[in-house]
Amino acid sequence: MLKKIAHALDGISNISKIVVLIGVGAGIVLLCASLLISLVQNISLSFKYLYEQMAKTSAIVFAQGVFFGLGFDFLLKVLDNRSK
User: Fold this and answer.
1) C-alpha distances in angstroms, 49 versus 26, 43, 62, 77?
2) What's the whole-number mean pLDDT along residues 5-9?
3) Is there a contact between 33 and 57 (Cβ–Cβ < 8 Å)?
4) How many CB atoms lie within 10 A of CB 27?
5) Rounded distance, CA 14 to CA 82, Å?
């Protein structure tokens, strides 16, 4: 499955690839930080709320990175076809 994803990423432009990787990377970093906070014993209620919100935000950032990256690639292809 990862091989299919890597193969699909080879077909998009470099700018779009960078946008996708930034979004995915930021989402993964937020998710890991949320996981590390959740593993701490005896934390207050505010920290529990914090890591829950961080996990939700990481999913949003991940999805936005993919959406904007692929949307930007689509827009570049449409503009390229019009110029021909």
Assistant:
1) 20, 10, 20, 42
2) 75
3) no
4) 20
5) 20
